Amino acid sequence: MFSQCLNAKIESAEKLAGNTTAEINCDGREAGNQKKEIHAVDYRDTIQESLDYIEDNLDTEITAEELSSRAGFSLFYFYRLFQAQVGMPVMQYILRRRLVHAIYDISCGAKMVDAALRYGFDTHAGFFRAFRREYDCSPSNYLKRHKPKRPYRINLRQEGHVMLTQKKIKEILSHWGMEQEKISSFYYESSGFKSDRCWYVGENYLLKTGENLPALKRHLEVSEAVRQAGLEAAVYVPAKNGEKYIMDEDTYFCLTRMPEGEFLLARDLYAEQGNSRARYVGEILGQLHLIMKDMEEQEEYQEDALLASIKGWALPGARRAMELPDEFCSEFEKGLEALYPMLPVQLIHHNPTPSDFLIRQGKPAGFIEFENTEKAIRLFDPCYVSTGILSESFEDGNEEKLRQWGLLYQNILRGYDSVNPLSEKEKEALPYIVFSIQMICVAYFSESEKYAELAEINQKMLRQLIAHRDMLTLE
């Protein structure tokens, strides 16, 4: 998530029925042409007004007729326009938003029956059935496994993609002959966000979608190189036409078979033998960099632009979002500029969150994805996964927890150094790179209501790391 925001800033300067609207999902010349006509004119602002109205009135009755009248379209055309822009029928979207808000209220202490009635469900049983259909489990089981995030307003221009219905996903899976398999939601372990770009298919497969085709190709290429080197990585499943992915208009879909193992969770590193596991994380990351260094001549990748992004966007953005001492900012910028040219640059993962590491028998055995791979300073990756661990486990004011994290950070770096030795200049630059990553997170998360909670956490993290700068040097 963090490097996606960085990539976006570099290029420009982390997770919701009806027979009529179903025609847009179907194959056929007429439906396809109509959909293209809808996309030919940018109606996002019009539909955004409908989304905002829905969000403000979830506790009242909302009809498609009312929304179409407000938008100035016929009911038939509004159905099609909404589906094309959002990715699902309008009434299904309203239902999904009501469920999202209701389960959040319940997690905050509201009685289930009160939340159900507030958001338009006539009975507790009606809410229960609707929730099970949407989430494949009961509300109580959901709350045992996930901590709902405060609902944020959907912004079509910020989201950059549409949501998909189960019907559409099954249509896509037919390209692999797997449309009868069970489809389950995918949740990011680090943040608890429900992804609208990934779905579990059956027990062992993952369907992914996106618009960045070069990123998908990088993921497939690096995954293959990693497997050939003896580490674990996801394996793509060819579609019935033999291709590694299929295209649906401007969107790709790729099906992968997940390797055996579990995602690494930050809490696992605070348990017994956590420091040993942290060292393994550093070691396998060092191995990955050696593999990727051998790949550099095979493909042209975007060159490192981290320094320019930090100076031009992340540092100013962090200063706008929080009070950073002028003296600290001045020293940080001068120190980073002096050291940066001496830091080795190569192909790196560029987004190694803890849940990107595959664990088997208590040790990291491989990686999940590589879609953000590019050339950058190699020090970024070990610092990035370290701050990711802190973000997942952060407790403001808990000095003991911070001290434990400091030991994990040290062991990750020692593990990396034992496989892929760090230079003296890299060791000197460690605090500056950690601060840089935190500034990127603060600047990005502070720009969107969706990430308000993460923005607050990362601001507090940056303050504590500045106050404990001494723990960021490699002892």
From TrEMBL:
Question: HTH araC/xylS-type domain: which residues?
Answer: 48-145
Asked if the keyword Zinc belongs to this entry, the reply reads no
Assigned keywords, A-Z: DNA-binding, Transcription, Transcription regulation
Q: Does the keyword Transcription regulation apply?
A: yes
Q: What InterPro entries has UniProt attached to this entry?
A: Aminoglycoside_PTrfase (IPR002575), Homeodomain-like_sf (IPR009057), HTH_AraC (IPR018060), HTH_AraC-typ_CS (IPR018062), Kinase-like_dom_sf (IPR011009), MarA-like (IPR050959)
One Pfam family recorded for the sequence: HTH_18
Question: What GO MF terms are annotated?
Answer: DNA-binding transcription factor activity; sequence-specific DNA binding
Q: What is this protein called?
A: Helix-turn-helix domain-containing protein
